[in-house]
Amino acid sequence: MxxxxxxxxxxxxxxxxxxxxxxxxxxxxISSTRPRRRAGLRGAAIATGAAALLGLGGVTAxxxxxxxxWWAEDAVNDITYTLPSGAECEGILGNFRGNADEVSAxxxxxxxxxxxxxxxxxxEYDRALAATYVATLDDGAEVDAGPGTPYWSADRHYxxxxxxxxxxxxxxxxxxxxVLDRLSYETEYRCPELVPADLEAREIRxxx
Amino acid sequence: MSDxxxxxxxxxxxxxxDLLAFCERRLARDDASDALAEIMTVAWRRxxxxxxxxLEARMWLFGIARxxxxxxxxxxxxxxxLADRLRALAVSAPAxxxxxxxxxxxxxxxxxxxxxxxxxVRLRHWEGFSLAEIATIVDAPASTVRSRYAAAxxxxxxxxxxxxxxxxx
Lengths: 208, 169
Known about the structure:
heterodimer, A: 208 residues, alpha+beta, 6 helices, elongated, B: 169 residues, mainly alpha, 0% strand, globular
């Protein structure tokens, strides 16, 4: 070994000591970074009624027992969150498409075990509350459809806020990495009935 | 637990110390824990691609680590609550020798190399990989890695042989 080899070997920056406590923290990290998959996620998705949503931020009600999206078995993550009513929504994220770099970066971002902690859902929901909503009635009259009216569903808009916050955080991350090009992905959600069918069918315009 | 997940858990347990050291040598101490959390997250996500042979699995993990650290240099390291405990331990723990300023001139000389050359030197002398292993980690032909290493040594030998300014007392 030459003098140069010795100098190069000795130039390694200092690292932390190995201790029993650190070993334990590393084991804990291995476990906690593992994606949390629902037990049934890889089971056969045979029920009908759950809709795969193309695009971003969409939410649908579904009463099925399993995921129906063809990509469900390869979903990169599943998330569960509580709606303003106290009901729970579950969703899966997958079928990422685009160039290889952005798909890889997007999948890594969305696969975070605690993805929801990275999102600013409350700020997005505040924007939803502050927006203007107009419903068109059967007689053509236009009425306010915002919070406090019969046409408003807090659960529905909160669930949509989760979708918006998710896509906003993802795209911001990809822009920071300089890899955002033409990414698209799909989500499938299973939520309680968020809004009565007659209101679901009614046209509501919004500037949110 | 699937076969790939079980193998990855074994591989992570076997290599997590070295992966943390890899991060600590390239990032601020408190960022290293978050980078390690990111490495593990990516590894879990790609577990189905984990090579079956343990040595190859180690190279695969360091390939991920290299990309995570490169991203960390381009943008701020994301704070992960998953790394809270490890970060607290790493920041408060005393460092292994050498002292922080030991070898600083050599590190500066390495940093002054073109990035591809510098990375080969760091992987060889800081992480202890063979040139063949480095070729796997950086996904380059072994002959390319050998030439990079030879060029790097030549440049380093010249740079470190130059007279340095005397230390002022």
